[in-house]
Amino acid sequence: MEKILIEAAPGVMTQTYFHKGGDKLVVWHHGTPAPRPMSPQMLELFSSFGFSVAAPVRQGYMQSTAVGPRPIADDAKVTKAVVEHLGFDEFRTIGYSGGGPRCLADLALLENCIKGIAFAPMVPTDLPEFDPLKNASDDEKEVLAIVRSWAPDLKERFVKWQEEYMAGDPANDFKDADEDTKKWLETDDAKFRLAQKALAFESGVDGWMLDEYSMLTPYGFDVSTIKKPLLIITGDKDVNVDMSCSVWLNEQVKDSELRVYEGMGHSRVFALDVIETALKGF
Q: Whole-model pTM?
């Protein structure tokens, strides 16, 4: 993918990966902490459906300017600037995991966003009727509380977590995977994705820190205001973002469809075979 810098606001640059593959535009919002280009195999798939792909890198990652704590609604302004820069009148939006809320922001706030797909999406954590973190472990909840507090030593903590994250072997996350997932891990697309994790820390830990914080504070928009078509895809074995999040989101968005893939976990659900099915009619 071509790497370009786009001025999203005066003095604020957004690094964007772009692939010209067709006359229709998809804006792809990456996971957390996972800014990366798409694999050649995935780009070929999107091109086969007539899509060009733009992947904005969120603030603080790589060459994208770190502005500071801000609501996810502000990321829709970045999407708007990217789409205008590339010269498209309308676009479709896709978000995976931590990119899911950005997909929802596009749908809720941008008129020229016509439909979206959310893969294993995060949902707001400040809801009176639903707690997406209720199944999280006590250790996870403790970490999330630290991030939400925006404590003075937060960056120091993230530096330590980054070292632990990079030292970990990605294969360990799949040691108990089923045979289908193990076969997927041997594909070129999966190998490409797993090899990209160091990209998140090219400019330090600010991107990861700001990314995590944004998902634990009010989004700045109400997902129930979304009126455009939304396809929600999740796996029933997802231990990163519980399937209940997708179920709740499907209940909030009037024109939505929920697809649950049995036996699939968080990474597996965002793979070529699932995406190919999702792109039909998109």
A: 0.96
